[in-house]
Amino acid sequence: MKKVILTKPGNASKEISKQLEKAGLSKDALLVWPAFSFRKPYAPDTETILNGADLGAVLVVVSPTAAQFLYDQLPNLPKDTQFAAVGEPTAKKIEALYKPIKPVIFPSGSVDVSGSERLFEVFEAMGLPERVVIVRGQTGRGYLFEALQERGVSVSKAVIYERVPFQLSTSEKAKVSPSDALIVLVTSTDAVNHLWESLGQEFADSLRNAAYFTIHHRIAERLKSLGAGKVTIYDSAKDNIVQLIADTAS
């Protein structure tokens, strides 16, 4: 039997599951396992962010989730704060929340050609900033931090939210068998690692033979390093992921 595992965090996997049901997939075939939930950390790095903003640092916000947690904790940042985002969805979230007077800096294009690498290219083209604060969860965006640091930029990381890994219960795990053909939607390398660890060695062959849909070449590379052979990178701005999954499941 074909099973679809949806690991996109937040409510996104639930919404995709509902649309897949409407497209004709059985509810029993749909496993909503969001890789992470999010929460406020015990001691968020608000002082790092405030000090950076006061010194004119560019605040790089890594996701719409980071933007929301930032606003919830620091809604009154200086009006002239310069924000940057790793993609258009995050930029739009910042604009909706803060209504900044300076345009948000972000790379255009699909997820696969935006992100950390493209944002760094944008910084290079416009002139590297003197100071940057990367507003994020407890991990991630290592490339951007290292690339900026190597070029002499004063760069700091500020944790504004925590990612809490999904705990796969015995009852949830029982919904899938090592003999099932798997279709997996995964949107981060951490989610890949967590899924493989959660299912364990008994599912190693199933996971290697699964059909994966993902949004970035780094995630695809991680999957291939684990032995996955069927990996599709889709453009979230253009491709209909529901239709792609439904077609694969048919």
Précis, in short:
The chain is an alpha/beta fold. Helix content is about 40%, strand content about 20%. The chain has helices at about 10-20, 45-55, 65-75, 90-100, 115-125, 140-150, 170-175, 190-200, 205-210, 215-225, 240-250; strands spanning about 1-5, 30, 35-40, 60, 80-85, 130-135, 155-160, 160-165, 180-185, 210-215, 230-235.
In percent terms, what proportion of residues is strand?
A: 15-25%
Number of separate strands? 11
Largest sheet: 5 strands, parallel
Q: Please bin the fraction of helical residues.
A: 40-55%
Structural class: alpha/beta
What is the terminal separation in angstroms?
11 Å
Detailed description of the structure:
The chain is built from eleven helices and eleven strands. It has 250 residues and is α/β, with parallel strands linked by helices. The strands form three sheets. A five-stranded parallel sheet has the order 2-1-9-10-11, with helices on both faces. Strand 10, helix 10 and strand 11 form a beta-alpha-beta unit. It is elongated and about 55 Å long. The model has no long low-confidence stretch (mean pLDDT 91).
Topology:
Elements: E1 2-6, H1 12-22, E2 30-32, E3 36-39, H2 46-54, E4 58-61, H3 64-73, E5 82-85, H4 88-98, H5 116-126, E6 131-136, H6 142-150, E7 154-159, E8 162-165, H7 170-173, E9 181-185, H8 189-199, H9 204-209, E10 211-214, H10 217-225, E11 230-233, H11 241-249
Parallel strand pairs: 1-2, 1-9, 4-5, 4-6, 6-7, 9-10, 10-11
Antiparallel strand pairs: 3-8
Helix pairs in contact: 1-11, 3-4, 5-6
